[in-house]
Amino acid sequence: MSAPPTRSTHSDPSRPSAPHERSGEPSGPPKVSEREARRVAEAAREQGWRRPSFAKEMFLGRFRLDLIHPHPLPAPDDVRRGEEFLAKARAFCETRIDGALIEREARIPDEVIRGLKELGALGMKIDTAYGGLGLTQVYYNKALALFGTASPAVGALLSAHQSIGVPQPLKLFGTPEQKDAFLPRLARTDISAFLLTEPDVGSDPARLATTAVRDGDAYVLDGVKLWTTNGVVADLLVVMARVPKPEGAEEAPEGSRGGITAFVVEADSPGITVEHRNAFMGLRGLENGVTRFHRVRVPAANRIGPEGAGLKIALTTLNTGRLSLPAMCVGAGKWCLRIAREWSGAREQWGRPVARHEAVGAKISFIAATTFALEAVVDLSSQMADEDRNDIRIEAALAKLYGSEMGWLIADELVQIRGGRGFETADSLAARGERAVPAEQMLRDMRINRIFEGSTEIMHLLIAREAVDAHLAVAGDIIDPDTSLSDKARAGAKAGRFYAGWLPKLVAGPGQLPGSYAEFHPAGHPDLAVHLRYVERTARKLARSTFYAMSRWQGRMETKQGFLGRIVDIGAELFAMSAACVRAEMLRANRDHGREAYQLADVFCRQARIRVEELFHRLWTNTDEPDRRVVDGVLAGTYTWLEEGAVDPSGTGPWIADAAPGPTERENVHRPIR
């Protein structure tokens, strides 16, 4: 399909000038202080905890097994509808999706996308009232795992469309009129994309440069967005832009308060140009691009929520939206397990299958046990999201963090098990007469998951902030350097009351009683009760460690990112252990591979406990301080002599592309699928 002609090079005198053209001020992200950046991020957080949270309680040292056990189950009608769609989706994946072709041509064929529309895959999460399938989060994730194994690019397209694209923000924050106008299109015909990142703005939204200036009954958008997944083929966009704060209250429209705001934007609006389709090491079929807005008029009726609510909308959307990524990691783990099983049984070395050699067998055990745990984490979190009884913001974030990290390790271990064949492409294997196993492609495709939807480093900080929320609520003013002495005194009294009641409870608990959680040690099965007792004891130890660190570092705690990352990683392991045990017991009670599930859960917990103990050791025995000194030296040029003896094959150009607002100078490569 040829690209439509570019329209955004033509200026329209009836439109107001872009802000930088009117004021003469330099373009680019606004200059903000570190304190202001933190203030913006903090304001976007969901304040308060109106519902219980298993993970939040765990970080406070309270092991609330009752919040996840017995394992919540979907309603029979939800199961029936979900299984019916999964059967259709599997048939579609097996007959209509050629993953090797998508990899070779770096594009999902238009006929495949049209087939997904006909299947109803665009509307998996959209309510039936708007023409969608109305699947639960559980079955939506199972479908994504299925599509993602057929082609990770197809899984990414469907996930970006529904998990973070227009449907989810509208479901949570849209008006009835907006839902009526857009959701039927999104359920059947229109692809959506989410546009937040900019060339010089990633996880620091306070510096967002794209603007939306109110002009009568519309807003005028100007700016450039980077890494717009689905942006090349999208029909509807959800765009985050900064609305300038009104200067005169008398002239400002009602409800105008400025700030980062969310809008639904028609992708073919005059002034929108997809300037470039990005190419990556993996997910070669991903339709991800650079999108420029130049004097784009968007009706005020298309604003989602009030002005200034954009970041809160984005973060709330991601509470469940993040579950799609670990769901596809589960699918990848299942595929890796199958290939490892078949290959390791067929390949012989030194007189026996390589699976029988301990060095390879340990990798297979890791893949099997970890895949079981990842599915336990995703299904548990998803079912809790469906029931809406618990606040799962931490659970979903932990699922994303843990799924992306462990999924990458699973793919890496498969490549190692396959040896040279793991490094060889599927096409090359087929050309010389062997089975075309795309193990190296899986490794490349999985790598982005540690960056997508919040990098591992950002997830550590996000989860850590939520995990210490209770401490900051009672002691935040004590460690805040800007708080007055009188306020510090009042905060001290409040903190004293909280810790006087909390700290004694961290000394002893059910984890020290041999008979606790006895229902997890049925006759003839491995003992999972011992692992749950470990989780309970370790949750209290984790809480004590966090308290000690806050007492030691106080206001400098937020700079101890290495320590915070390890705290979060311990919590992720404990959550995964809990989910694995609860899932195993649920399967046993339902007579569904219960004995085998207990075996997998037991091995996973044993492996996880080793990782947890190492992380605890590294809380206080690490190289964080000398690492910082080396970094200072690197940035100061102290070690440039170490760089000698190598050449730099990089091309020329700036580190960050110019993203100044204005008309485009490039062809529009937007290509909607009709």
TrEMBL record:
Gene3D superfamilies: Acyl-CoA dehydrogenase/oxidase, N-terminal domain, Butyryl-CoA Dehydrogenase, subunit A, domain 2, Butyryl-CoA Dehydrogenase, subunit A, domain 3. It catalyses: a 2,3-saturated acyl-CoA + A = a 2,3-dehydroacyl-CoA + AH2. Residues 9-24, 32-47, 664-674 have a biased composition (Basic and acidic residues). GO terms for biological process: fatty acid beta-oxidation using acyl-CoA dehydrogenase. Its cofactor is FAD. Keywords: FAD, Flavoprotein, Oxidoreductase. Residues 308-466 form the Acyl-CoA dehydrogenase/oxidase C-terminal domain. The keyword Oxidoreductase applies. Residues 83-188 form the Acyl-CoA dehydrogenase/oxidase N-terminal domain. The keyword Ion transport does not apply. GO terms for molecular function: acyl-CoA dehydrogenase activity; flavin adenine dinucleotide binding. Residues 1-47, 652-674 are annotated as: Disordered. Pfam families: Acyl-CoA_dh_1 (PF00441), Acyl-CoA_dh_M (PF02770), Acyl-CoA_dh_N (PF02771). Transmembrane segments: none annotated. InterPro entries: Acyl-CoA_dehydrogenase (IPR050741), Acyl-CoA_Oxase/DH_mid-dom (IPR006091), Acyl-CoA_Oxase/DH_mid-dom_sf (IPR046373), AcylCo_DH-like_C (IPR036250), AcylCo_DH/oxidase_C (IPR009075), AcylCoA_DH/ox_N (IPR013786), AcylCoA_DH/ox_N_sf (IPR037069), AcylCoA_DH/oxidase_NM_dom_sf (IPR009100). GO terms for cellular component: cytoplasm. Belongs to the acyl-CoA dehydrogenase family. PANTHER family: ACYL-COA DEHYDROGENASE FADE10-RELATED, MEDIUM-CHAIN SPECIFIC ACYL-COA DEHYDROGENASE, MITOCHONDRIAL-RELATED. This is Acyl-CoA dehydrogenase. It comes from Streptomyces paludis.
